[in-house]
Amino acid sequence: MFKETTSANPPILAPGILATAETCVETRTRQETASVLFVDQSGQLGGAEFSLMPLAATWDARREVLLLSDGPFRERLESLGVPVSLACEASVSGIRKDTLRLHWLGALPGIVRQVRAIARHAEHFDILFLNTQKALVLGALGKPLHRKPIVWHLHDIMSSEHFGPLQRFVVRWLTRHAVDHVIANSRASADSLVALARCAPENVPVVHNGVDLDEFRCESAPDMAGLRGQFGLPENVYLAGLFGRLAPWKGQHIALEALARVPDLHLVLVGSALFGEQEYVKSLHAQAARLGVQDRLIFAGFRDDMPAWMKAVDVILHTSTEPEPFGRVIIEGMAAGRPVIAAAAGGVTEILRHRTNGWLVPPRDVTALADAIEVLRAAPEMANRLAAQALDDVAQRFSVGAYLDQMKRVIAGTSG
Ligand code: UDP
């Protein structure tokens, strides 16, 4: 499917890039008629699911989301009026990307059933849109059965830090032989696939995620003191927030180390262990006790009202230890009008510019993180200036409208 080459960078689609009069008419017509089956492996809510939600909700023609696990994602989709069906197999759900070796052999009957179930569903649609790694493997393996064009939305950096050799081999093979179109969520993700599958960069367009600015503006929300009171957060303290699932590579332990180094700083961790990282959660509690920071640390759990939680903090931290494929929480923090300090790797560097619309620190560097927090706390005017620029940038480059336009153009181009 893909030409082999290792040349220049893949294109980042800007709003309007395909919008000549001719292509507009052509894509709109196709867009309205092409029916799409979206497939996602997770019932939980992560960045990939939040980016699929508005796409499935606003797709003009017939569409359905097929989930390979049940959970709150199904409820959210249904509340938006999106038809959802389930094809769950516990043995397949149990396969984790970091433990994928020969474990999958025991899950083989379940894998075959899911491949068939996806293919059966896909027969009734024009396009099969695969939103996650497992969806890619199971949906693409069934291509001889369904014969539908496949669009894969890549939300991962396909490096050996994130994926084992078997997974990388399978993805490389499927990219070359079964996938018709890939859309990457960042240049970092796109580059990693181009390197892995040696495909042509122009075949892996980049569409950055977008956020609903109105939702994050939340003008009706109370002021910061009111929000803190409502959430039981400490008032009259300098409060940092780290938003995202609790997982070792998200680096909450780095934030705890920084908390111990910055006097009087308080920290709230918003998010939970979505994929069984209970040991890590335990280790965070033990680390907090060892560092003596429990009275300045709050575990808030998974929250649905991110805009309000983000507005309730003074500064937003991002501490991933590995390159982040994109990092929705960063554009959300920018949209909430809060200064963001982030680990400079992967997609993050496509969003933030150091000292212009945020503050970048090397990943895993506790000293740099603690220093950055001190600098922004001591210079609130500068922090406000960064946050204001970030808000402008997010409106210009990361709006949900621009994201949907670009995604729909690429998908519509698939069915022709
Ligand atoms: N999120 C949420 N509630 C929480 C924690 C996270 O709604 O308690 C959302 C967050 O707002 C963001 C997504 O989960 O939209 C995480 O996306 P990101 O790309 O940052 O990370 P991923 O989990 O996909 O690696």
Automatic annotation (TrEMBL):
Protein keywords: Glycosyltransferase, Transferase
Domain Glycosyl transferase family positions: 228-390
Domain Glycosyltransferase subfamily 4-like N-terminal: 46-214
Annotated InterPro entries: Glyco_trans_1 (IPR001296), Glyco_trans_4-like_N (IPR028098)
Keyword Transferase on entry: yes
Name this protein carries in UniProt: Glycosyltransferase involved in cell wall biosynthesis
Native organism: Paraburkholderia unamae
Biological classification of the source: Bacteria, Pseudomonadati, Pseudomonadota, Betaproteobacteria, Burkholderiales
